[in-house]
Amino acid sequence: MEQPTQLTCLAAAQEAEKCCKEGDHARGIELLENAIEMGTDDLFLLSAIYSQLGNAYYTMRMYSKALSFHLNDFYISRIINDLQWSSKSLANLATTSAALHRYEDAKEFAHNFLILAKQLNDKKLEGRAYYLLGHVLMNKVRHAGCSRPIGEESPLKEEIVQDLNQAITYFKRNIMIAEDMLNTSFLYGNLGNAYYYLGDFKNSYDCHRKRLKISRSFGDKPAMKKAYINLGNNCVFMTLFDEALVHYKLVRFRLCLLVDYHS
User: Fold this and answer.
1) Residue 43's domain spans which residues?
2) How confident is the model at residue 158, as a pLDDT?
3) Residue 88 domain flag
4) pLDDT for 128-143, tens place per residue?
5) What distance in Å separates the CA atoms of residue 241 and residue 254, rounded to the nearest whole number?
6) Within a domain: 1
7) What CA–CA distance (Å, rounded) separates 229 from 116?
8) Predicted confidence (pLDDT) per residue in 217-252, tens digit
9) How wide is the angle at C-alpha 166 spanned by C-alphas 186 and 109, nearest 5°?
10) What domain count does the chain have?
11) Cβ(56)–Cβ(47) under 8 Å?
12) Among candidate residues 80, 108, 123, the one where a domain is terminated
C-alpha cells in the first residue's frame, strides 16, 4: 500500500515545482504542503520538498517560514549524509537569515558553507561561499543605514569599516577563483560598491571600469548601465565633474555602444 502514496506525494511535488516555475508560488506551496501531509519514507524526496517550500516562501518574502523549511532540509541532508545537498541548504539558510537581518546567524551559516566547500574541494561552491559571506556583510552595512560613503559622525563607523574591509577580502577571493567572466563582472560591481562605501573612490572607480569592460564584451546592457552610474558617482566624489557628466549622459541616452572603453 506504500507505493501509491509515494507516487501521489511525488506527483504533487512535481506539480508544485511546475507551478513555482510559472510564478504561481501560492499554489506551489499548497501542493507541497499537501505532499508533506501525504507522507513519504523517501528522505531525498522529503528534503527536496522542504527545499522547494523554503524557496517558495522566500520568494513571497515570508522569510521566517522559509527559514524553518530550509532548516528541516538541512537536518535531513545531514541524516542522509549528502554533503553537496548540505552545502545548498547552508547557502539558503545564510541568504534567508540575512533577509531576516539575523546577520550573525547568516555569517555562521555562510562560514559553515565555506568549510564544507573546502572539504568537498569544490571551487565553484567555495566561490559562492565567499560571495555569500561578502553579501551578508554588505547587507548588514546597508541595514545599518549606510547608503553612501561613511562619515566621521557615524556612531557605527568602526564596525562598518571592519565589515566593509572583510567583505572586500571575501569578494577578492571570489574573483580569484571565479571561472565565469560574466559573473566576474557582477563581482567587480560588488567589490566597487564596498570600496565606495569606504570612501575609497579610486579603487571603486577601477572596479567599475573592469565591470564595464567585461559587461561590454558580453553585451550586457543592464550591467553596463550600472557601471556607468557608479563611475559617474565616483567621479563626483573625486571632483571629476566633466567625466561624471559623460558617464551620466551615457546612461540617459543609452549610448553604450558608441564609446570605446576597451582602449
Assistant:
1) 1-80
2) 85
3) yes
4) 999 999 999 999 999 9
5) 20
6) yes
7) 37
8) 988 888 999 999 999 999 999 999 999 999 998 887
9) 80
10) 3
11) no
12) 80
